[in-house]
Design a protein that fits this description.
single chain; 463 residues; alpha+beta; Beta-Lactamase; 3 domains; 5-stranded mixed sheet; 4-stranded antiparallel sheet; 12 helices; rod-shaped; binds adenosine-5'-diphosphate
């Protein structure tokens, strides 16, 4: 099962290679044999002409005399070449006849050729054929040569040997190609299947909860690289989700521990009689309970916003109306710290969820009030462009250190831990702001200088 991919790839590559080798061998064999037969046929025609002209040259017209010794020698050579010759003069008198010269040799040569050709080329339907060629000198017929040879063509020993060697070489090349393709095919299959198998293994580990596993991104194939990258991305996001889940549990426990511990020690002291029960002490207890209540409230809000079913009831909203109503809700807090506030800018209409937008403004204004210096001015500026609109809250307050800015939108993050306990923040307000603004397709930005103040800017699309 584990190696079935590799086996399949190897056998597919092998099947393709085998088929290619078979096609190449078959076609090359067929064409080589055909071309060679054509060549041999031509050679044999030429050979007949050479025999005739050589025989003609044995006649001396001056003396009307034939060189019979040469004719006999040439005739004998021709027998060994597969040509059975009979030479006649102009009167039809036989000058030399291979069969009567050495019948046994002729029969043996003919039987050899016939047997070999019928064995090797059974489809050729070959047989010995006789052709008569006239010999002439200056248009005067001096005689004729009858040549019998195996037709349409025949191969002699060396030609057979040549074809045999050629076929052996082709077979050798085929076997070599097959061996090489087995080696390369299995290497290739290994190269392709290995990263896939590794990825499958890694996916199995991830499914079993081991999110730290990562794959090496070394494969050269684009699609495999993409697969490895996707698995690594998946592991990354699962790991960070797992870390966030753990962090959240830790943070909630931590956030609850402080007020509960304080509450516990206050109440214990009162029960033990070490402390008198006074309205002030009860008030301190109430403050801690209130802090826990607010924390739970914030967590509930955040979980609602971050849950999958979170739905925005968008409608046309006048930004300045939302901001004015938010500001008027802070009348007491502003008054208590002697803060002034001014709303400036344009009056755009946006498509948004008014209640959620009010929540954003409330959280930002609550922070501005919390961190502003007593008696300082706060300002809200509304702006718009062609397709976006937004607002910014500015306070002349403590500001936020530069290195802390990237984290302030994270859950439970508080820039200055000691300062914030006194200001009562849980570190969730800005997380809620960011979630709501992003659900609207917008963004929150912050500019802040320690000791000077901070500006939080919210921008959302108009529609
Ligand atoms: P909190 O409830 O603690 O205010 P937030 O999520 O609203 O939580 O803010 C996170 C942290 O960012 C705060 O603890 C505070 O340190 C910093 N912060 C937010 N707004 C301001 C501001 N206007 N001026 C200075 N610091 C701020």
């Amino acid at each position: 099962m584990k190696h079935s991919l590799r086996r399949k790839l190897t056998s597919t590559i092998l099947a393709v290679v085998l088929l290619s080798i078979a096609i190449v061998s078959f076609t090359s064999n067929y064409f080589i044999n055909r071309l060679f037969a054509d060549y041999v046929k031509e050679q044999q025609l030429l050979q007949s002409q050479i025999i005739v002209s050589t025989m003609s040259s044995q006649y001396d017209s001056d003396t009307d005399h034939w060189n019979l010794d040469n004719i006999s020698a040439l005739g004998m050579f021709s027998i060994y070449d597969g040509y059975i010759i009979k030479v006649m003069d102009a009167n039809g008198t036989v000058l030399w006849d291979a069969q009567s010269h050495d019948m046994e040799l002729c029969n043996r040569v003919m039987a050899d050729i016939e047997q070999r050709m019928n064995l090797q080329y059974p489809g050729l339907n070959g047989e010995f054929k006789t052709t008569i060629h006239e010999m002439a000198v200056d248009d005067t017929v001096i005689g004729s040569v009858s040549i019998s040879n195996f037709g349409p063509y025949f191969l002699d020993d060396s030609q057979f040997e040549f074809l045999r060697s050629l076929n052996a070489i082709l077979l050798g090349i085929g076997v070599l190609a097959l061996l090489v393709s087995i080696v390369i095919g299995s290497m290739l299959a290994k190269r392709i299947s290995e990263p896939i198998l590794k990825t499958v293994e890694a996916a199995g580990h991830i499914a079993a909860g081991n999110y730290t596993i990562r794959l090496e991104e070394s494969s050269g194939t684009g699609e495999l690289k993409m697969l490895v990258t996707s698995i690594n991305d998946l592991a990354n996001s699962l790991e960070s989700m797992e870390a966030m889940r753990k962090q959240l549990t830790e943070d909630v426990a931590h956030e609850l521990r402080t007020p509960v511990t304080i509450l516990q020690s206050y109440i214990e002291s009162m029960i033990d009689g070490m402390w008198d029960v006074t309205p002030e002490r009860l008030n301190s207890c109430y403050e801690e309970v209130d802090r826990i209540g607010r924390l739970i409230d914030d967590l509930e809000k955040l979980s609602r916003i971050e849950s999958e079913g979170f739905h925005l009831s968008k409608k046309s909203v006048a930004l300045h109306t939302v901001l004015e109503s938010t500001v008027s809700g802070f009348f007491n807090e502003l008054d208590r710290k002697g803060l002034t506030i001014e709303i400036t800018g344009s009056q755009p209409i946006v498509s948004a969820d008014p209640d959620r937008l009010q929540q954003v403004a409330t959280n930002l204004l609550s922070n501005a009030v919390k961190y502003a210096k007593e008696g300082s001015p706060l300002s809200v500026h509304i702006f718009e462009s062609d397709d976006e609109a937004g607002f910014s809250f500015n306070d002349k307050g403590d500001g936020i250190p530069k290195e802390e800015l990237p984290f302030i939108f994270e859950r439970f993050y508080r820039a200055d831990k000691s300062r914030n306990r006194s200001t009562g923040g849980s570190g969730i307000g800005l997380t809620i702001v960011k979630s709501i603004v992003e659900a609207h397709g917008g963004r929150v930005e912050v500019e802040s200088v320690v000791g000077i103040g901070s500006t939080f800017t919210v921008t959302i699309p108009k529609v």
